[in-house]
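Form P-L/3: holo structure prediction, ligand protoporphyrin IX containing FE.
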Amino acid sequence: MSQSKNFLIIFCVLALAPLGLCGKAGSGGYLYPQFYDHSCPKAQEIVKSVVAKAVMKEPRMAASLLRLHFHDCFVKGCDASLLLDSSGTIISEKRSVPNTNSARGFEVLDEIKSALEKACPLTVSCADMLALAARDSTVLTGGPSWVVPLGRRDSTGASLSGSNNNIPAPNNTFQTILTKFKLKGLDIVDLVALSGSHTIGNARCTSFRQRLYNQTGNGQPDFTLDQSYAAQLRTRCPQSGGDQTLFFLDFVSPIKFDNSYFKNLLAYKGLLSSDEILVTQNQVTRQLVKQYAENQELFFEQFAKSMVKMGNITPLTGSRGQIRKRCRQVNKY
Ligand code: HEM
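OUTPUT (holo model):
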């Protein structure tokens, strides 16, 4: 290992780790913000400019890119397994229930990758691109910024079952969702803060229809949903048909990263069941929702911390994995 890398790792352990700026990877590797400072000094600038262009063209893209990092990290760690297309023995995670007809933004990652390959071939991982794009998307929509620890490498495989089982579903119980977070090393505070991502972006009718018509199987709607809001939602999300029709997750400010998501929850106007249960099922999460609804700064601070924590879920470091040339396929050699 080169001396400068040694130094960075020691610096990381002694100085940055206590600040949450370096993550200890599961198997001993470290992520640190300066990882590309010498090998690809323009890396962060390149990611930011492609993301900015994409979000300018379509504001929702910020939400879609933020979500991709989450769906990547919850499956085999933050290793860009999500970005692989099916081929050979690989069955793409894009085919899983949470991702089909839903996860989007892959073309933006292709564009970032091709710009990075031109500037510094085989240097910047697709997994780091996802982490940076998530941060840039948050900032571009008005949310907090944070320093992104880097040095993740890309997987050589995908896990369809991991994608189906580890990513929480909108109709999961509170306990199931919390358990899925805990299995990834995230706690109840991370759950509430990260759910705040639903301050931007859209959901399809199929993701919350059950709440409008038959929440518990007795033909009754979810009474924890404001009934006039529910009536409004029913007009565009009928009992059958219209599965893919889109709705704002935060109807107050759908493309602005702010704390109105939490205010909506307190008014029983959270779109997904998984959103509303944060105020109806648990006192700890209810208190956190109240605090974030009252204090946007507090939400922003915690969101940034929780994003760094999520970004540290078992990355591949050192010589594990590879730097893919194209995010959609593993290198052939
Ligand atoms: C707590 C458990 C969570 C559940 C059950 C959940 C579920 C969902 C569902 C069902 C959708 C709509 C998908 C569709 O209908 O196509 C969605 C969208 C979204 N989710 Fe989550 N999510 C959770 C946590 C998170 C986290 C931790 C993040 C990011 C850190 C996140 C970011 C987003 C974003 C930004 C969107 C909008 C995407 C777009 O417009 O393309 N979610 N989520």
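COMMENT: Residues 111 and 211 are 38 Å apart (CA to CA).
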